[in-house]
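Summarise what follows for lecture notes:
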Amino acid sequence: MSQNRLTLWFGGVWIGAFLLLQTASPAAAAAPAQDPQTALSALEQRLAEQEARVAAARAALLRASESAGRPKTSPPAEVERTFTAEHAQFVAQLDKVRAMLLRASGVDLAVPQDLHSSVQALRSAERALVDLRSKYFAQVEAHSNAWRPEQLAALVRRGLPEAPPPALPEELTSYFGEPAARDFEDHQGFTVLFDGKTLQDWDGDPAVWQVKEGAIVGTSTWEHPVANSYLSYHGTEAKDFDLKLEIKVAEHAGSGIQYRSVVGVPWRVLLPQMPPTQPRWLMTGPQADFFPEFSVFSGQFYSENTPLGILAWRGQVVNSVPGRKPRLVARIGGRVELGNAIKLNDWNQYEIIARGGVMMHIINGQLMAVQIDDDPASSNNASGLIGIEIELFPGSVSVRNVWLRKLR
């Protein structure tokens, strides 16, 4: 028999099975038995038709394998198990197809030796194609745009596409490639706001704010409790910017990062029996909240010392327009689940991105809240100062590695 018989079935097996089912219908069974040679000729013609389909499928597989690059790893265990299960079903189905084929031809397998050889060649071709599919998937898995195991398994269940998409030309990869990995330590274009040694350009209550072990530390104790006290940076003002810092809160204190804020505005709500704080050490404006003990607040968008209050709770994207109540636009995730990204009594990476009316709060690489303020007159949309808060007691707030990339 022809060597090309090793490429049989694959792409045309389901079409072939359909045709064979038609041939094996009761009407066909009732037809007079064919001469063995005539039946063999008919079988050879059907096999030749399948051969052409398989050759096309095999060529597509080889092209896909070449475009996927050299394999670096073997397929994951999930894919191996999927192939094992699928192969068993594959062989069982083919046995049924062969039986129908023999019944339809009216030829005894033991009589025409050529037919026996054809069936054996068909079996070899099927196994060769299964091996080829396995190698193809292994190469795809090792590719830079590798599929996850569950995606591979789904593709195996559906079967290979007739013509896998060709590899993208190098000049087009930027349109469909993944972005560079997040790098919190990337400070290109940033200016450091805290030198790790002094509070130069910072203003706050010296009884509360000090530099300890390379960090800004605010302390509130039973002996010297603090309701609200802020350390504000006066080296620059900013409206559109990226701000990165690390923050840690101990015991029962709370904190937040002020931005686009002002100082000196009289406090709207004073806690009873608490010593007053000088207006110069109070800040009014947008705040990225950080209150680990009351975890539900950390990451939210809060307008400090204004009637606006909480605008975007953690897990929310909220839009504000003049004359209307703020409206939920989308959800980022569950408020409780997002809290799992916050480290207790440890350093957390906090990033604030402000562009026009859009303000984003990110903790440890997890987006927490987005406020979109479309009111040009809103206090949220004014250029202002950056600052750090401590509230309640006893406890402390520590901040280090403060970097600002100011756009305007």
Summary: The mean pLDDT is 77. The chain has two domains: 3-171, 191-406. The domain at 191-406 is CATH 2.60.120.560 (Jelly Rolls).
